[in-house]
């Protein structure tokens, strides 16, 4: 842990984890304050997990969350009250420590000279000059004072952001690019299904962010708070300002765990798990191995979500394991989906239905998970009937695999770049923003209708790279994205139904049918998923190699 002393009785740190609470207790901390909202990252434990362990050790735990870069004066006042009432020493934490330090700085405004606040924070490793400018400017951040300026600024260091930066450099070496992302680790999230199925170790899916960002690209290790597209600026955590010529936005999705009552209090215990969290995918495999009989429930929320096939993948791999262990007949499996069909592209449904019947899975369409009671091991769903009316249904479970509802990140939903539903508003073919010609967006937070998968980002990145360079006068023609997405459905260990499609659900296979027929379970497709796609991701897509991803060009 990177713990930094800030003031008498107060230290700040990056995100902490339940297994670090004993170390904090031994270091003498008597209270912790969480300043990070749940659901910001897929490697982030929920506050309820932290609080449960802390209280068991006699450490007070308090929750005062703030969005990145949007710490309010009121939150500064609330933080000051906690400092007065909570037993010391205190550790306040967020993603990086910046929000906690900002709350402290706001709490001290009017009590300490501003230069002293800046100096104290600087000694702890945090730049508060932007916050002080905000205080001196009556709560507003002056965007004219920029900390940095770059030709191209990319928001997000996930699959879409890294691939786009690499594709830009492959076309225009030496281009001035900055990636803004606060995370220390880059994850290969498509691998988490295989972690939950006992095929991969979780560590295989994680590389350091520093090693993943392309050489020559500037890394601004911060979170974005707000956009000022009319002034070509973004405001970062700590009220710092970065200006750009071209902006590319691809921050991924937010997992909305709190949309399901009681879930955050029981996730990771009582048989409740999710492959959508890095640290819980191994728990999925643990539960699957332990279950020898009873009720297993797998859920799917309303669209859009990351990889719409992932809820089924977890179910099929679990059922296959139970079949191999000879206990499948003793386990009742429910698939409870808010959708009205098993899969959105009809061509792949017959193959999937054969496995549904073989595993004895009970399909429940129109069922949306609304609450979970972990100690009682019950899950309640809102079920839509044939007449359109809804009613609650409560199901018992011994294993519950939950896929949470998903939304665009908070700073996207409230920005001028968002459409009425909160998604980045782009042209579905060019991926250029509909309101600002020097803004492009791709990946999960865009309002395009394609499947939200890494395969989609692989196809989108070259399109955006070309169109950005065209906007800068460095390329000709207009690249077009056709909505390609791919979902390797792991129907059993060793076989995959490889779904590939474009806008409108048009089947779009990458291979001839004699090699891989995506509508049938395939051993070769499994080898592609297990052996070929991970190195292709790390060494191909993220390095700017556009295998089967060269964009089609049209005249401007």
From TrEMBL:
Enumerate the InterPro entries for this protein: BLH_phosphatase-like (IPR005939), FAD/NAD-bd_sf (IPR036188), FAD/NAD-binding_dom (IPR023753), Prot-tyrosine_phosphatase-like (IPR029021), Rhodanese-like_dom (IPR001763), Sulphide_quinone_reductase (IPR015904)
Cofactor or coenzyme needed:
FAD
**Domain Rhodanese stretches:** 78-144
Give the Gene Ontology MF terms in alphabetical order: FAD binding; hydrolase activity; quinone binding; sulfide:quinone oxidoreductase activity; transferase activity
One GO term (biological process)? sulfide oxidation, using sulfide:quinone oxidoreductase
- Write the record's keywords in alphabetical order, separated by commas: FAD, Flavoprotein, Oxidoreductase, Quinone, Transferase, Transit peptide
This protein's record includes keyword Protease: no
- Asked if the record carries the keyword Flavoprotein, the reply is yes
Coiled-coil segments: none
CDD domains (alphabetical):
PTP-bact (cd14503)
Protein name in the entry: TIGR01244 family phosphatase
């Amino acid at each position: 842990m990177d713990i930094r002393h800030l003031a008498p009785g107060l230290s700040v740190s990056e995100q902490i984890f339940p297994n670090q609470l004993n170390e904090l207790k031994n270091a003498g901390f008597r209270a912790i304050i969480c300043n990070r909202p749940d659901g910001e990252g897929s490697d982030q434990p929920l506050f309820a997990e932290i609080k449960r362990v802390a209280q068991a050790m006699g450490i007070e735990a308090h929750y005062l969350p703030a969005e990145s870069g949007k710490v309010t004066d009121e939150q500064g006042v609330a933080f000051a009250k906690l400092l007065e009432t909570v037993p010391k020493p205190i550790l306040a934490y967020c993603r990086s420590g910046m929000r906690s330090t900002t709350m402290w700085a706001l709490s001290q405004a009017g009590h300490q000279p501003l230069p002293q606040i800046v100096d104290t924070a600087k000694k702890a490793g945090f730049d508060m000059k932007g916050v002080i400018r905000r205080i001196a400017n009556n709560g507003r951040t002056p965007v004219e004072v920029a900390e940095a300026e770059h030709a191209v600024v990319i928001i997000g260091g996930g699959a879409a952001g890294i691939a786009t930066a690499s594709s830009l450099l492959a076309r225009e070496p030496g281009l001035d690019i900055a990636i803004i992302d606060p995370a220390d680790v880059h994850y290969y999230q498509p691998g988490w299904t295989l972690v939950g199925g006992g095929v991969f170790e979780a560590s295989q899916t994680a590389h350091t962010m520093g090693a993943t960002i392309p050489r020559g690209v500037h890394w601004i290790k911060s979170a974005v708070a707000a956009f000022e597209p009319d002034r070509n600026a973004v405001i970062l955590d700590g009220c710092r300002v970065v200006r750009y010529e071209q902006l590319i936005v691809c921050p991924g999705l937010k997992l909305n765990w709190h949309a399901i009552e009681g879930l955050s209090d029981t996730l990771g215990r009582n048989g409740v798990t999710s492959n959508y969290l890095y640290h819980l995918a191994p728990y999925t495999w643990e539960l699957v191995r332990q279950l020898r009989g009873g009720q297993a429930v797998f859920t799917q929320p309303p669209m859009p979500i990351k990889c719409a096939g992932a809820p089924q993948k977890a179910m099929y791999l679990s059922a296959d394991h139970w079949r191999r262990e000879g206990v499948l007949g003793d386990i009742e499996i429910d698939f409870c989906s808010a959708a009205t069909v098993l899969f959105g592209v009809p061509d792949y449904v017959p193959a999937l239905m054969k496995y549904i019947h073989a595993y004895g899975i009970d399909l429940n369409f129109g069922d949306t998970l609304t609450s979970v009671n972990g100690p009682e091991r019950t899950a309640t769903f809102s079920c839509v009937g044939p007449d359109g009316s809804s009613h609650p249904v409560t199901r018992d479970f011994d294993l519950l695999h939950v896929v949470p509802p998903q939304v665009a990140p908070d700073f996207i939903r409230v920005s001028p770049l968002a459409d009425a539903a909160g998604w980045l508003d782009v042209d579905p073919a060019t991926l250029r923003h509909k309101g600002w010609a020097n803004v492009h967006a791709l990946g999960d937070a865009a309002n395009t209708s394609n499947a939200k998968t890494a395969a989609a980002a692989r196809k989108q990145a070259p399109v955006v790279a070309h169109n950005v360079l065209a906007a800068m006068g460095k390329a000709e023609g207009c690249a077009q994205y056709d909505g390609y997405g791919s979902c390797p459905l792991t129907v059993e260990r060793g076989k995959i139904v490889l779904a590939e499609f474009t806008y409108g659900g048009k089947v779009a296979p990458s291979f001839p049918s004699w090699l891989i027929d995506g509508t049938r379970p395939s051993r070769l497709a499994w080898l592609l998923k297990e052996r070929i796609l991970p190195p292709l991701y790390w060494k191909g897509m993220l390095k700017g190699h556009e295998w089967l991803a060269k964009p089609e060009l049209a005249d401007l």
